[in-house]
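Chapter summary example.
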Amino acid sequence: MSYKRAIHILPNDLLEMVQEYVDGEFIYIPRKSGKKKEWGSSTSTRTELQQRNRQIYEEYLAGNSLQQLADKYFLSLKSMQRIIREQRNIP
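The structure predicted for these 91 residues follows.
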């Protein structure tokens, strides 16, 4: 998310109306419902996490314990269990 200066994008009368409610503070204006983006769609984070989770599952199948994997990837045991469960269900 990037910040834009209201003075550069809003008409002066609208800016003055907004200042009646929020003066000198940050506000978040959500996207319209039809224009929402999926989480991770504008970065590579989603792909990187999928690759990490596949790697974790492969290491688990190779005999590494959940505790070893949790320590290696700095995740909780619950997170490891969730990742293994989700990876098992992928065809």
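To summarize the output: The chain has a mean pLDDT of 90.
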